[in-house]
Amino acid sequence: MFRHRKSALLCASLTATMLATAALPAHAQGQAPAATAPATIAARSAGMEVAQAGMQMRVTALTDDILRVTIARDGTMPEDASWAVSPETRRQQARVTAAADGFATATMRVAFTDGRLVVTDPTGQVITQDAPDALKLDGPAFTLRKAMPQAEHYFGLGDKTGGLDRRGKSFVNWNTDAFGFSSADDPIYKSIPFFIGVGGAGGSYGIFLDNTWRTWFDFGHREEGVLSFGGPDGPIDYYIINGPSTAEVVRRYTDLTGKAPLTPQWALGYQQSRYSYMSADEVREVAGRLRAERVPTDVMWLDIDFQDRNRPFTVNTQTFPDLPGLIEDLADDGMKTITITDLHIAAAPNEGYTPYDTGAAGDHFLKRADGQTYVAPVWPGPSVFPEFTQESTRDWWGELFREQLDWGVAGAWNDMNEPAIFETPTKTMPLDNIHRIASDDFAPRTASHREMHNVYGMENTRATYDGLRALRPDQRAYVMTRASYAGGQRYSVTWTGDNTASWDHLKLSIQQIINLGLSGFSYSGADVSGFGGGPSADLLTRWFEIGAFYPVFRNHSAKGTPRVEPWVDGPEHLAIRRRYIEERYRLMPYLYGLAELNARTGDPILRPVFYDYPAALNAGCDQSWTFTVGGAMLVAPPPRPESPAAYDVCLPAGGWYDYWTGMPVQAPEAARGDEPILSATQATGGTRAAGITISETPRLDHLPIFVRAGTILPRQAVVQSLSETPEGPLMLDVYPGDDCRGTLYADDGQSMAFQQNGYLRQELTCTVTPEGVSIDIGARQGRFDPWWRQIAVTVHGWDGAATVRQGRTALNSRSDAATRTVTFTTDAPRRATTITVGRD
Length: 840
Prior knowledge:
Elements: H1 6-23, E1 40-44, E2 47-52, E3 55-63, E4 66-72, H2 87-90, E5 97-99, E6 102-104, E7 109-113, E8 116-120, E9 126-138, E10 141-147, E11 153-156, E12 170-172, E13 194-200, E14 203-209, E15 216-219, E16 226-231, E17 236-242, H3 246-257, E18 271-272, H4 280-292, E19 299-302, H5 323-332, E20 336-340, E21 345-346, H6 354-361, E22 376-378, E23 381-384, H7 391-399, H8 402-407, E24 411-414, E25 434-437, E26 445-448, H9 449-471, E27 479-481, E28 493-495, H10 503-518, E29 524-525, H11 537-547, E30 554-555, H12 571-586, H13 588-601, E31 606-608, H14 609-612, E32 627-629, E33 633-635, E34 647-651, E35 656-658, H15 668-671, E36 692-696, E37 705-708, E38 711-715, E39 730-735, E40 740-746, E41 760-769, E42 772-777, E43 790-796, E44 802-806, E45 809-811, E46 813-816, E47 821-827, E48 833-839
């Protein structure tokens, strides 16, 4: 949301730059390393302890592929407590085999040799190893140094700017209200001190530094060939996560910090917002126009102006005289309502303002260093701030949502929770403010804001999420946050903050969402259109096209900017924007299946191409904002979206189909009459040893999308809201190829019944045979009865007539030479069944 005058922005930007510079390490100042002293290595039940020249390090194998490294200061190990990793996870221990210089798990060899920690795979390939002079201490500050192989690339750290790859750059973790940030500004809203190294000799690995202070990471920016990270204080406590694939690293990182809960299905629909819709009449007008223009929509958002004087947990009854009635009417029209609730509470004693009165009575507000309640200006004016590091405060905060839930509010939006403060150049509260810690397995104590700043927003969302779940235990909670820390995906979805309406920010959004997904936050989005400024008609249309594949698809813009609802700019642009919104709804069975997969495994919904196709990392094309949706669908926007110039798309090995036409993709030489990319046999299966490069020419009404050969893609008819039941059968598009598979998943979309077997899952496979294609539909798992009664199957890449049989029963089918398809419909099977498509 728009927060600042220009002068305040300039001052804050300069301050943030100076602070970021000051936070970076001093290890490049030419200090000579001390002579290596002999090390003493002692075996432990799940690892080892190393003592050398006053340094004491403990390495523990939590699992075969996750190591925890803790280093003592003055002989005292850090407190065994964490905001990101649960006690149960930290207590895990793998079986290890001791050695003279370290130990081994089933998949890793860990050694301390020549003063360095070295982790290899069983064959001796280095996963990660210390650089010389691996640990430096400067009072409470510390620096850790790792070797940086020349071929290695780095990803993660959440939605940092600076491009997709972190190599050659440095970053600071300090949650910052960064309105109007550029593609090079740092820090911004989130602090996720986790990165993935990709492309080294040992494959992919991850490192998570569990430290909430103002930590920093340097990927060879200040010292060539050295990857370094550290902080000004706090625990030296980090985790090494083995792959060897990027997917395995992400899955294990989310094993460590937690999986995102399964989202309610309606949250995958299109969402309409603005700062602000100023009255109930305006909300009704926009919602009515969405329905009149047949734009599928599932959520309307209310920003701060629905409140009385911007006070959380209030309503402006002049402009929203019957908010419960508005919410009910929107629900009747198939739209959920989400309301904003910032974490600042108006300092309003003796005014009958319940959040302040109950918070003060319960002693739930943060204190200054002198012990007085901290009061500072934010949207309501003078405000106080909950002490979310106390469990009792989180319980009090969660209970405040009771009235909104009773009205029918479907979710909560926690903004401004860096925390952002007005009228101060630091943009946040004093660093000597006091937080009382009374939570989890932390020893009760007080901590300064220096330590708690980066975790404050996450604990805000934790309080909200836990409150919603406690008040509606049978319903899934939905919370959106701007600021967070590692593990915050357990409580909230997120977005990239106050972006701008520019082509640069459109491209940046993909890179940010990819890195958020690799950092645990699979549910994320960017304000479609850009929050600040006003997009051109072409920019807005292209943003709708790409935003339709964001995990969170929300149109949002700032007060005082041009309107950006889908119908602005006239009927031609509306038709394109509506088409892509509709396509998202057609893909809902696939998207919801990916959401459920993410809840079980941690696999992101939107992924970098190399996540599923490692060779793509060095494919030679600009992959900086090409991405896949679940691995099976590859989306390839133009790398210079404002330019009409043609561009190359690298498609990984294995064969691909054009999503829009359903036709197999051919290499350029095939189009000239040379050897085709897919022969007649390969078009219905088979692989190639290498990928292909094709050329695309940008068209405003077209976004290139490709489907992996070997995909079974579920789709449905378009609905105006996910509260509606789609008409007709479930559709299965079969794109034959190697490792051909798909999944059907369904549940009621909103309750917790899926945890008690209230779901349906069916695994789908296909096999290319000399006679044709065999499609296997597995038996149903779970007891949920889905909406579909029939399945309409389309087999792509087919030449000639076809005979279709399900067991001994012949099915009516239709072959189409122009589209190279064969189609048929069958009753939705409950038991395992095989359908054969043979050549007639």
